Amino acid sequence: MTSLLTATGLTKTFPGVRALDRANLTIAAGRVHALLGENGAGKSTLIKILTGVYRPDGGQILVDGREVHLHSPEKARRAGIGVVHQERNLIGAFSVAENICLEQLPRRRGLVDRGRITAEARRCLGLLDLDLDPSTPVSRLSPAQAQLVEIAKALAADSKVLLLDEPTASLTSDEADRLYNVVRKLRDAGHGIVLVTHKLEEVFAVADQLTVLRDGRSVVESSLLGAYSHDDVVNEMVGREHNQVALATRRVIPPGKPALAVTRVSTAAGHRDITLHVQPGEILGLYGLVGAGRTELARTLLGLGRITEGTVVVDGATADIRDVGDALRRYRIGYVTENRKEEGVFLEQTIARNVAVTVWSKLARWGLVRDRAEHSIVTEYTQRLNIKLSSAEQLAGQLSGGNQQKVSLAKWLAADCKVLIIDEPTVGIDIRSKGAFHQLIGDLADSGVAVLLISSDLPEVVALADRIAVMRDFRIAGEVVNTREYTPMSRAIIRLIHGTGMAA
Description:
Blueprint: E1 3-14, E2 17-28, E3 31-36, H1 43-50, E4 58-63, E5 66-67, H2 73-78, E6 81-84, H3 96-101, E7 107-108, E8 111-112, H4 114-127, H5 143-156, E9 161-165, H6 173-188, E10 192-196, H7 200-206, E11 209-214, E12 217-224, H8 230-238, E13 260-267, E14 274-278, E15 283-287, H9 294-301, E16 307-314, E17 317-318, H10 324-331, E18 333-336, H11 340-344, H12 351-356, H13 360-363, H14 371-385, H15 401-414, E19 419-423, H16 431-446, E20 450-455, H17 458-464, E21 467-472, E22 475-481, H18 486-497
Parallel strand pairs: 3-10, 3-11, 6-9, 9-10, 15-20, 15-21, 18-19, 19-20
Antiparallel strand pairs: 1-2, 1-4, 4-5, 7-8, 11-12, 13-14, 13-16, 16-17, 21-22
Helix pairs in contact: 4-5, 14-15
């Protein structure tokens, strides 16, 4: 078995935090290698070292048996290491072909050779069996198509090692199956694939080997996956026997005045005749496939889109919400976005600044917000959410994805919202943090907060929601009252999604 890449003893320290502690990873040709670990375990840091974003403080990297120093993403690319990030790095206004060849544009007599760009794009798309016009603007692609174009881009750079970071986070199950068929094809062609994911069912479906990181160390190193059960892997990740968080059976919410009521609403985004409501202390799940219109509906309710018909009522009064700030100030509605890196947190600002931003007006004295006031807020919510940080002055961009999600939630908890819209709360979140998020959402509802929960994770919706509204094609396909019995519940929901069932 040929080793394409070997990393030994990799160490990386940030102020107050050792992100990697002599971690090891070996990637073989013709293998899919799962890289697993909880949030903060060091996965993202390891990926960034292998792709030249970070320089290690110690350790060695060998590519094809030779030591390399990956001091930039360009050097990593030249060494044959490609990466497909969870947040796609494509330019929407450029064509598929231009995106694929962007990092090494072919030229002729000093000018960009359009013919060679198209030919190279067709070659790379052909390797993936992707029937896509190279001249198509990337902005017109589906999430699954865009993800495959990212892989084609890596193939254009002749990447022998391909790192996939949460590749199915925004894909439907059918789209994920197609992506993994491509992964298997690349594996069979001799590529080494590193798969970073929190979806263990996908790991067992496609991976051959695994490495598990815990607290920056590799506690399982390049082992054959067949030797491990699902529970074995979980136990290695958390370092002890794992017990899923079991939520207490929630009380039935008696009929009363809704905290948020949407009646026969149509929107400029394409929604038609949307009617739903959520009461204080209730969790309403909004489930559907990617593209069903759930996030677009939430953003419209927050003033980020236009309502063309119907009414929105908050706490018994008709609401005219202009933007997210207006939603918070006038109606005490908060929004935990699914896009944490671009909208959920200010990556280049401190954790203190991120958590306190929603309550600056309360903390200000004579127009100024004191650091001490911000820090008191941070202390309360970082302890409550178990956010791993070196200090309140640490930049949010230095946190793991799961801890960034916690910071995104903390700012709305600090604002003491009456209605909280939570969009895909556990995408990219590890098992233990996922259970903690579920417990926290249940606690919020028990404290009287009305929660509108948007999730593509069916077990998550069934575990948390009191009622589940199913969306299809920008409409409400039906509603199911949660009986807490997973199998009949999931069947009823799936029937609604595919248009073969009625509301329960």
